């Protein structure tokens, strides 16, 4: 059962889109899916050990908590992108592009 939960969680990480330069534009989704998969695995393990808690219930709770933590942690680290001219930038919290012309991305 835990293998099924892990396979389902990890397959969500493939649902990202890439721009024409090959850079991931949906890092938040990938990080949330990874957090959900790890949370499901840990939750299933806790559910198997704790009396009165089913491993499936633990996996479901762990997936929810792990997905939230993964999405929040993803916001704290800006992703670098390449624009049409090949320059590297990230988007700040105000939605503005911040360029670093010395950086390779």
UniProtKB/TrEMBL annotation:
<feature type="domain" description="YMGG-like Gly-zipper">
    <location>
        <begin position="31"/>
        <end position="74"/>
    </location>
</feature>
<dbReference type="InterPro" id="IPR027367">
    <property type="entry name" value="Gly-zipper_YMGG"/>
</dbReference>
<protein>
    <recommendedName>
        <fullName>YMGG-like Gly-zipper domain-containing protein</fullName>
    </recommendedName>
</protein>
<dbReference type="Pfam" id="PF13441">
    <property type="entry name" value="Gly-zipper_YMGG"/>
</dbReference>
């Amino acid at each position: 059962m835990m293998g099924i939960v892990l396979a389902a969680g990890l397959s969500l990480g493939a649902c990202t889109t890439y721009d024409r330069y090959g850079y991931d534009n949906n890092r938040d989704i990938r990080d949330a899916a990874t957090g959900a998969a790890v949370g499901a695995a840990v939750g299933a393990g806790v559910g198997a050990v704790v009396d009165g808690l089913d491993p499936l219930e633990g996996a479901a709770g762990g997936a929810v908590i792990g997905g939230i933590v993964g999405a929040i942690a993803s916001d704290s680290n800006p992703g670098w992108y390449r624009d049409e001219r090949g320059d590297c930038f990230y988007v700040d919290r105000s939605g503005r592009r911040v360029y670093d012309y010395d950086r390779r991305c």
